[in-house]
Amino acid sequence: MKNRLIVALDTDDGGEIDWITEDLKDTVSWVKIGFQAIATLGTEIFIRMHERKFQCFLDLKFHDIPNTVARDVGTMTEHGASMINMHASGGIEMMQAARKRANAAAKSAKKKTPILLGVTILTSMDEDRFQSNFGSERKITDQVVYLAEQAKEAGLDGVVASPLEIEPIRKACGDKFLIVTPGIRPTWSDVGDQRRFTTPSEAISMGADYIVVGRPIIKANDPLEAAERILDEMKGK
């Protein structure tokens, strides 16, 4: 399970990132790097994380014209990002351009081709908020599945989606299509601003390939103990 738990380093404290990852380096394999960590440590963070044998999920949710997103995805591939996401709502052309540039950048830099993911609907959004914000004729689950199908058609490896949408995504996109699920909250933690969430064990039993956990680990008094508890939950203990 250590290869399926992604710890979100959602902090702008470089010292905190250092001591947390030093504590976790033998227990988990993946870390998620967002705007806060990049703003604090820059792309040097990839070097630090690779020294500790972590694979890096770059969570910048790219969303721009195809050329811009392709350029940025290529740059981050060269820096060694193992997983990169972008908003699937940016469209098929944007995602196709990102796929093409990531493949070329990985080959040129002699690095492993990154997993590319389309972000569907944020887990802080529930049905009422979705309808009031977007006025969509689709229900939130239908929109998630639609965006997942668009991501697959564009050549992406998978999507970021709530665990509540795993089953319909699997039905539409197949078992090989990766599903990374944020919105994970252990029973012993505060749910915060999440609206569509499950526990670690529920997400794994539903078929998530990876789960992303941030605050319950990095804000714990003992992040290592918290990560171990979550891994045990993932195993069904």
Report what the structure shows.
With 237 residues, the chain is α/β, with parallel strands linked by helices. It has helices spanning 14-24, 35-41, 44-51, 66-79, 92-109, 127-134, 140-154, 166-173, 200-206, 215-218, 223-234, and strands at 5-8, 30-33, 55-62, 83-87, 115-119, 158-160, 178-181, 210-213. The chain has an 8-stranded parallel barrel with strand order 1-2-3-4-5-6-7-8, surrounded by 6 helices. Helix 7 (140-154) packs parallel to helix 8 (166-173). The protein starts with a strand and ends with a helix. The model has no long low-confidence stretch (mean pLDDT 92).
Write the topology of this structure:
Elements: E1 5-8, H1 14-24, E2 30-33, H2 35-41, H3 44-51, E3 55-62, H4 66-79, E4 83-87, H5 92-109, E5 115-119, H6 127-134, H7 140-154, E6 158-160, H8 166-173, E7 178-181, H9 200-206, E8 210-213, H10 215-218, H11 223-234
Parallel strand pairs: 1-2, 1-8, 2-3, 3-4, 4-5, 5-6, 6-7, 7-8
Helix pairs in contact: 4-5, 5-7, 7-8, 9-11
Q: Could you name the key traits of this structure?
A:
alpha/beta, eight-stranded parallel barrel, 47% helix, globular
Give the structure's gist in a few sentences.
The protein has 237 residues and is of the alpha/beta class. The chain has eleven helices and eight strands. The mean pLDDT is 92.
Total count of strands: 8
Report the β-strand fraction as a percent range: 15-25%
From the alpha carbons, calculate the radius of gyration and give it in angstroms: 17 Å
Low-confidence stretches: none
Largest sheet: 8 strands, parallel, barrel
Discrete helix count:
11
Helix coverage percent:
40-55%
